[in-house]
Each structure stands twice: as C-alpha cells, then as structure tokens.
Batch of 3 targets.
Target 1
Amino acid sequence: MTSQPFISSAFTRTILSHARQSGLCQDQLLQRSGICLSLLDGQDLQVPAHLVERLWRECERAGAGASFGCDLVNGMATTTLRGLNILLDSAATLRASLACFTDFLPRVTNYVVAELEEGGGQARLHLRSADQQPHFFGLDAATLTLVRNIARRLGRVPVEVFVAVRLTPQQAAGQWLRSVGIEVLEGTHPCLSLAATSLDEPLLGANAFLHQSMLRHWQTAAAQHTRSDSLELARHWLTAGDQPIERIAERLGYRQPSNFIRAFRKQFGITPKQFRLGL
C-alpha cells in the first residue's frame, strides 16, 4: 500500500518564509496553491506533494527568480530535516551518514528517493522522483544543500569532494557549482559523484553516543510509521473481504490477535470487529 506523496510541513514553511523575504505575498501563495494553514501548524505534519508543487509554481508566477531554490539552502540545512542533520553529522564516516540519509529521507518526504551507487572508483548519490519530476526550485534546494553539507561534514571545500554533479536542464544550481570549480553535467535527475574512497573518511562531528541516541529515535519513528501504514491496510482488508480478524493479524506480523486488536483500537478508537460492523 503506497502512501500519498508528501513533503514535510517544515519544508513547506521554509519555502513560505523565503517567499516572504523575497517580497512575495504569503496569503496569496497559500490561497492559490490550496494549502491550509492547519497543514503547517505541526512539526511532523505532511503536506500533499502536489500542493507543494503548486506552491513552487505560484512562487515562480509571482516573480521568484530562477535562483529561488538555490537561495533556500540555509533554511534547508537548519529547519527542514527535523533533526535528521544531527544524525547525519554525528555518524562515524560519510558512508554511515549517507546510509542514514537514504534510509530516513522517506520520513521527511517520499516524493524524492535517494540512492547511493558505487562503481568504477566513484560513488554516486542519485535523487530520483518517486512520482512526476519535481519543480526545479526544489531540486536546486536539495542538490546544493547536499553538496554543502557533505563537504562540511568532511571538513573540505566542495571541489575537493565532488568529481561532478548532474542536473536537470531546468535547474539553476549549475552557476554556483561551476563558480566553486565543480564540473556540471546534464541528466534526467540530480546526481552527485564523488570518489568512492571518500565514503570511508571520518566525519568532523563524529559522536558515537549522540549518533546511537539519534539513530534509536529515528528507527522508532520509522517503525511507528510502518505500523500505522499496516493498520491502514488492515482497515482495507476488514472492509473489502471476510478474512477472520486472526488471519489479518497474522498477515500483518502480529503473533497474538489481542496485540493487533489493541493496536487497532489505539489507532482508530474502535476494535477491528466494531469497524467491520460499521460502528
């Protein structure tokens, strides 16, 4: 069961904050993009990705320049990853840091999928769309944030870390990348290439205790998210067929049906049997 594509409310607030600083009208942008303020109130709320895509387009229509996404880098680094940067900064090596990034990015957004590939003496970090191609403002913000943060974690300037960066034809990040000496290529999606040996370099902010603490936090959050998805699937099975509740519990990995019933009631306020009866 695939979740609806979403982008975190923290990222959406960062876009709006930058839009205000650029002289754009926030109320008008919200109205035209169809985003309700209630979606932005909490730190862990999810905004449907198509509404954020509409927000990007409305920013562009309202006069945001081509470098609008590039200028979001500072806000991206400090607010949008909801503490994920602490986990990434405190890892022992760049490889461990990027593994956490690819594993937990879906908790921040499932609209872009990060994948690390190794071969030919290089490591390539791909940013592929899980749905339609994201607006180039968002791709610029993500690409430059990764370039700057990875170099910062290694304590080196970007040109000493990256062999080349591939961008989509619409992106404006190429100007900044070339200005710091990085080769820019064209591709279907952003891709950061660096020497494979860089992956095993230690990070400046490595902190085993902090990293393990943050890792447990993110693993717990991911497990809760997975459990919530499985209970949504349970509702579908309860509605669509006549499988025994014990069988549904077994299919979802619950050893005891009572544990499934307890989790279902905690999530939805009623038992699976009551849900099936339409109560």
Note: The chain has two domains: 6-200, 210-276.
Target 2
Amino acid sequence: MPGGSGVGGVLRLGTRTSPLAMVQARGVAARLQELADVTVEVVGIQTGGDRHKGHLGELGGKGAFMREIDRALLAGRVDIAVHCLKDVPGDVPRPDGLVFAAYVARDDVADVMLFPAAGKVQCLADLAPGARVGTSAVRRRAQLGRIRPDLRIEYLRGNVNSRLGRLDAGEEFDAIVLARAGLTRLGIERPGEALDILPAVGSGVLAVDCRADSDAVELVRLLDHQETRRCVSAERAMLHGLQGHCNSPIAGHARIERDGRLSLRGMVFTQDGSRFVHSEERSPVEQGEDLGARVAGDLLRKGARDLIGSVPN
C-alpha cells in the first residue's frame, strides 16, 4: 500500500458499532479504495457512549463516543477513524498527535420531524398542544421551545431504527426529530417535515482522523473537501470560542454565498429557548477561523456566557 501504513497492506478504519456509524465508515472506505490503490478494513469499536443507556451528560457528553476510538488510533490498533463532526466536543482539545486529515463533502444539514407511520399527523402545526416530541439534542429542544412552547420535549437516545420503532409503537412519542443526513445514509425514506431551525456545528460532516505522523495522512487528504473544510473551520472556531459544554444549546452554520464570501450564523439559547442571542458575519473564504472567533466574540458580548451557564452540565 502507498506510504506503508496499515498491516499487510490493509488500512484499518476504526468506527463506532452502531448501524449508522458502520454505514458511514463503509462509505468512506469505499471512496478511499476508489481514489487510491489501498484495501480498507472497517474495525468496529464499541464506545462508552454506546454502552451507556442513560443521559450522555453522566459520561461527560458526546466525547464518550470518541475516547476508545482515540485510544485505538493512538495505540496503532487502527490507522484512521471516522467521526460525525457534530459529536466532536468544542470545549476540550483533541488528543495530541491526532489530526483531522479530511472533512468529507457535507451532506444535508436539515433536522427532520417524523411522525408515527400509522398516524394522521404529518407536520409540526398539526401536533396537539402538549404533544410529546423525542430528541436528545438541547439545541433542538431550545429551538422547538421557541416555535412551540406548548410541546413536551422528552429525552430520546438510541440508534435510528430503535428511535423509529419507539415512535411507531405510538405509546411514548407523538413525533421525534432526527438528522436527515443519517436517514439518507441509512437509506430510510419516510415522510417528515424539515424544521426551520439552525443546525448543530459540524452537521452533515464526516471527519476522518489520523495520527499526525502517519503515512495515512496524505492518503486520507484525497477525501478532503475544500469548501466543507472552510465552513467547518469557521463553525468550530465559533464553538471553541464559546467554550460551551456538551449540554449547551449552541447552533451554528457556515456556508459560501453566491458572492464567494463565507458567512456564519451562530445562536446560543437558554434550555427552553425563551432567551437567545444571535450573530451573523461574513468574511473572505480563507479567513474562516477569524470569522468564527469574531462571531463567538459578538455572541459573548451579547450575553452568551450567561445563557450557557444557565444550562446544567
């Protein structure tokens, strides 16, 4: 294999063992095999976040999905790893020696509200007052609270199919909210309503992690999508500047506008969405990190720190 990475000419790709994570990893593996003369073996790694059935805050947040994979990568048990970027914490540094060598071209960032397959409700406006909506994301909870404060937003975890199963059972939830990108990657097609809410930082992006001194870095860079990297650099810089914990209702989305400039919207909420701050700025595309820092600074001046501090960690 070029560069001599892997064992016996095989590049080992580490990932979580959930159905969605495995599908995503196989997609990355297939693309690498198309672009280079390399064989990729997908290695499933069960993480603490997958084993734990309670609230992720009890394990310190979404970083619980990454620790075992990071350790396997640093120890050389795998050569590269794939993460959903929205699950990568912004308030703690990445382990020394690891680098995101590629951000795969971004997929749809929409949050979609789904309804029981056997029911008659087909949109948010049709939900009765007090309807039960399942989601694990405080960002979604806060924005739904702004749109429909009458709804009962209840905590829901699990893989996509188990969440859909609980929805269709009709006993716990009147609706749930999922990422459209995950549904598409799993090949799941069912009616739903795309919500007019700001996505999570890194939504729709797969990040490919490597040891910084590995020969695999140059290979993985074949997957890197420049426009996505520029957008991500702005979003992640904003998230880092806000230093929100895993339970912070922070939303942010960068995109390249028709005039070629990079724009970034950021919002921070209270848990129920009753208060929020908003900022939007533009910059040349090469200045994503500066743009993110500028938006974070504006949000902080408008009171984001008090809003973040009002949400339990």
Note: Confidence is low (pLDDT under 50) at residues 54-61.
Target 3
Amino acid sequence: MDPGRLLLLIAIPLLIAAYIFATLRKNRRGMRFTNTSMLDVVVPKQSQWRRHLAVVLSLLSLITLTAAFARPKTTVDVPRERATVVVVIDASQSMAAVDVAPNRLDAAKQAAIQFVRELPEKYNVSVVSMAGNVSILVPPTLQHNTVETAINSIKLQDSTAIGEGISTALRALQQAPKDPAHPNDPAPGAIVLLSDGTNTAGRSPQQAAAEAGKEKVPIYTIAYGSENGFVDLDGKRQLVPVDHALMAEIAKLSGGQTFDAASLTELSKVYKNIGSEVGYEKAEREVTSRFAGYGLAFAVLAALGAISLGARWP
C-alpha cells in the first residue's frame, strides 16, 4: 500500500463541512418566505432523507476509490510450491496399547499413510522411527509410495527417545534435495511428531525442540492415545497415559502447534489440520480491484439517489 495516497482522504471532512454549511444556509434562506405555499408550487419539496443518503453514498464512493488508488494489500494463504515434511512415529512398547483400535501403532500408521497421500506431489517426505533406537527409514523423497512402505514396516521396540527423534528429524531435513532453480534457497521444513509417552532415553526433548526453533523448523506434536491405555509387559500390566504437557512444550519451543487425539477418527482430523498448516504460507496480495468495485457500486447507488431527487413521484 502507498500510505501517501491516503492523504487525499483529508478532502472528505472538508466536503462534509461544505455540505453542512450549504444545508444550513439553504434553510436560513427558506425562512425568509412567510407564505411557503407558493414556494412549494414553484420549487417542489425534496425528500430530505434521499438527499442525505445520496450524499453519504457519494462520500463512501470517494473513500473506497481513494483506498483503491492507494493499492491496498491483504495477507492470504497460498499453497506452497514445495516443502519437506518429516513424519516421526513413536514405536515404543506403549504404542501396543489397545485403547485405540486395533492398537495405537497400527492406527497411527493408517492415519500417517493417509496424511502422506494427501500431501502435494512436490513435497519431499521422510519417515523416522522413534523408540530407544531412532532411525531414518526413508530420507526426504518425492516417491510417496516408498514412504508408505516404510511406515508399514515400523515395528515395536523398547524405550522412548523423543529428543533423539527430533534431532534425527532435523538431520533428515538437511538431506532434502535442492531445488535446481533455487539451489541456495532451502525448502520450508516441518516435523510431525506422533507420540504417546514420556521420554525415557537419550537427550532432552526440550533442548532438541529449542534447536528446531532456532532453525525455524516447527514441530507439530500429536499426543496420541487415552489416559486409560495400558500394556502387558513381562506379565505385568502397566498404565501408559499420554504426556500432554511434554508434547505441548515441544511444540511451543519449536514454534509449532500441539494436538490431542484419542481415536483414529480424531487422529485423521488432526492430520488434516496439520496438512493445512504445512501446505500453505502467508503472502501479500493486492486487492485494488476489490475496493474499486466497492467504489463503483457506491457511485451507482449515489447516481440513482440523485436521479430520484429530480424525479416527480406521484
């Protein structure tokens, strides 16, 4: 927008003052006639409200046309041309809990695959399996069918190293192929972390999340499962509640968002929300034509009001 052009709006209050002055002067002149019956014959009485409305519409037209002249802009969501998404799936033993049918891990795989299918074809996708041992199953690739195969291959393991999972995801992002047209311009990256448990091994998740924030890589955390989840390990039943606080802290430190999902249906909705966040970016767009259209509409209405003042109604 060109703010200097908006200085033309100074004329609006001057026009309003001139209109009020002219109206008061007209009223004073009308009071000179003691017998107004002859005046009504010579000069037909005009509708006051139609006259005021026509003036208001004219002023609105001037305001919106001046705004259009200033070339206003607005912020809109536009699809990203390319990006890299790293999907980190918790494969610890707690993901065997059956509070989400058929179990947390299988349901997570199903929702993650659907998420990958709905991502744009130009998006590089990587998969990280996270337990006590963390590994990049697939580096960033455009072959989304390969990603689906990798997700299906994830198996349960011992322990949960969330901090290591985040660090590994950051390394995966660095492996994303460069855009030939812009080799020095890295594609936007994001991490989608699905976990149900508390960190039990490796480095601090908070420290890893802070590093992601410094690199401007948001982490979208999904706290998956219910508070009543349990697993049977070595003949003992152990509760495996979701650590919502940790997931929220990781998201906050990285500049991402946190979500909760206690069922496959909820998880699918969460992935749709994340897809909208990752798939779009903010951009400025000029909206001059919109304001010009408003100005034209007000001008037409003002013209109709002026015509109605000159018409003799029965």
Note: The two ends are 49 Å apart (CA to CA).
